[in-house]
Amino acid sequence: MKYLIFTLVFALTTVNRRQTYSDQQFKQEFLDNINHTRAKGCKCGTTRMPPAPPLIWNEQLEKAAMSHARDMANKDYFSHTSKDGRTSFDRIENTGYTHKGYRSFAVGENIAQGQESIAEVMAGWFKSEGHCRNLMNPDFKEVGAATYNTYWVQDFGGREAFSAEMQKMIKSGKVKIIQRSAPAQ
């Protein structure tokens, strides 16, 4: 009888091995994992990536990541393009993380499915050349990530404001901003 109870308890605890986190633990572990590697540099595929400045957490990017993770889980698909045709660029801008008023603007996204911990998903992304390049991209200054059911989404952003002098020139009409379209994914 004791053996049967132990077996049942063991079986129940191994069925759901997925790690759980508090909101702050989740953010901190993601940042620590990324920034540790960014500080020392790494190899993405065959390319040596030099150290990059640390990323900071951004709530708008987290919101975009959670929205996409939920959408993929609820609609049973796995893609950077939502079923309604939206790209990561569209989803990120829809949260208010926009390019308007910035001299430069860059966004990117990593997705994964099935990993059970931050350490596992990050190890996979660092082993994948394209995902690793996103993680090491010095143009990215901010990150937000989320997991929902078995889906993981990590959204990156980088914006650089115009100088105070340039802002005055834009406001006065002496300089006009010409907007370019986002590249297709």
Can you walk me through this structure?
With 185 residues, the chain is α+β, with helices and mostly antiparallel strands. The chain has seven helices and six strands, in the order ααβββααβααββα. The radius of gyration is 20 Å and the shape is globular. It starts with a helix and ends in a 13-residue tail after the last helix. The N terminus is likely disordered.
**Element pattern in H and E:** HHEEEHHEHHEEH
Instruction: Provide the residue-averaged pLDDT.
Output: 85
Care to count the β-strands?
A: 6
Beta-strand portion reads: 15-25%
Q: What is the number of helical segments per DSSP (H or I, 4+ residues)?
A: 7
With strands numbered from the N-terminus, the spatial order across the biggest sheet is 3-5-6-4
| Largest sheet entry | 4 strands, mixed
Helix content: 40-55%
Terminal Cα span: 59 Å
Structural class: alpha+beta
Structural Rg: 20 Å
Low-pLDDT segments: 1-18
So what's the overall shape? globular
